[in-house]
């Protein structure tokens, strides 16, 4: 009976926490200025983003409770520790919520700065909440949607990220959305779709990172020649980037391209002379050069008169 009471308490505690979370998110779901064109569609997107997140959190609560209930020998669980831990979590959550409600009004810039800093520190739940607050304050702030998509990618929540990038695609952010959808497809292992999305995104951006990511996809598909093509472009954009140079040398060697491999090695020596892979790359390039020389037919002793008689004087 005591264990049943504890489980009921935990369930009720979890539901209370979710209710508080829903109440906290309600302002995000409101439609403001309903007369504006496209506002209903944006409200639906915001609603779906929050609703999907709440569903995922509720599913996690259910999984934990089912696991606790079905665990063999659950009579050995220490009630005091379980209750104390759950109460501490709920207390901290309520304190944070009350503090946010009673603190001075934050501006949109404050929330954006908070979201960016939280993302850097990998505090993804905090970053997500801050970006959603920006969206509540300004539904047209597409940079917040972009940040939210990146947060979901970092969390490997690919379906949530896809929803955000598809929304951005409908609102004129073709480059951002194509790149985001390419990363979603890559994360889900759909390499051909990722390749096509990356190629489309590269038509709209001149930065190096997507070209390196596309080269990685192509290498996974076994197309090292195409991979080297995009790595050349990335190297041209950022000629001193050690990561790009490292990858460029590797793919050049795989393609048997000695000139490109040597060129990349010299650039790496200048960009990062303490790189521990320099000696390894140099040795691999020498071995490749020796193999290529061994394959070439020797010219020694070969006749140059094609079997014609030699004239005597």
Automatic annotation (TrEMBL):
Chain ranges passing through the membrane: 6-23
Keywords: Membrane, TPR repeat, Transmembrane, Transmembrane helix
Region span, Disordered: 290-313
Keyword Cytoplasm: no
Biased composition (Polar residues): 303-313
InterPro entries xrefs: TPR-like_helical_dom_sf (IPR011990), TPR_rpt (IPR019734)
Name the UniProt record assigns to this protein: Uncharacterized protein
Organism, scientific name: Candidatus Veblenbacteria bacterium RIFOXYC1_FULL_42_9
Upper classification of the organism: Bacteria, Candidatus Vebleniibacteriota
């Amino acid at each position: 009976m005591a264990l049943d009471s504890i489980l009921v308490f935990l369930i009720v505690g979890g539901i209370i926490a979710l209710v508080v979370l829903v109440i906290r998110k309600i302002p995000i779901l409101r439609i403001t200025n309903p007369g504006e064109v496209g506002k209903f569609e944006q409200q639906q997107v915001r609603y779906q983003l929050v609703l999907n997140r709440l569903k995922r959190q509720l599913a996690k609560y259910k999984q934990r409770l089912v696991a606790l209930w079905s665990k063999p020998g659950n009579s050995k669980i220490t009630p005091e520790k379980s209750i104390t831990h759950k109460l501490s979590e709920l207390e901290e959550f309520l304190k944070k919520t009350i503090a946010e409600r009673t603190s001075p009004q934050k501006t949109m810039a404050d929330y954006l700065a908070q979201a960016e800093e939280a993302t850097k520190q990998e505090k993804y739940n905090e970053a997500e909440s801050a970006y959603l607050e920006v969206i509540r304050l300004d539904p047209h702030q597409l940079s917040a949607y972009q940040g939210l998509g990146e947060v979901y990618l970092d969390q490997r929540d690919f379906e949530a990220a896809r929803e955000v990038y598809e929304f951005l695609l409908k609102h004129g952010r073709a480059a951002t959305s194509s790149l985001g959808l390419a990363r979603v497809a890559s994360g889900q292992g759909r390499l051909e779709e990722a390749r096509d999305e990356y190629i489309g995104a590269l038509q709209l951006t001149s930065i190096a990172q997507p070209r390196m990511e596309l080269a990685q996809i192509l290498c996974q598909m076994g197309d090292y020649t195409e991979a080297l093509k995009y790595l050349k472009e990335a190297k041209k954009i950022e000629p001193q980037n050690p990561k790009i140079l490292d990858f460029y040398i590797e793919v050049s060697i795989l393609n048997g391209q000695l000139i490109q491999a040597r060129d990349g090695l010299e650039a790496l020596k200048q960009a990062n002379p303490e790189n521990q892979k320099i000696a390894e790359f140099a040795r691999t390039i020498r071995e490749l050069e020796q193999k290529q020389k061994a394959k070439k037919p020797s010219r020694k002793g070969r006749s140059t008169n094609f079997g014609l008689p030699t004239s005597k004087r």
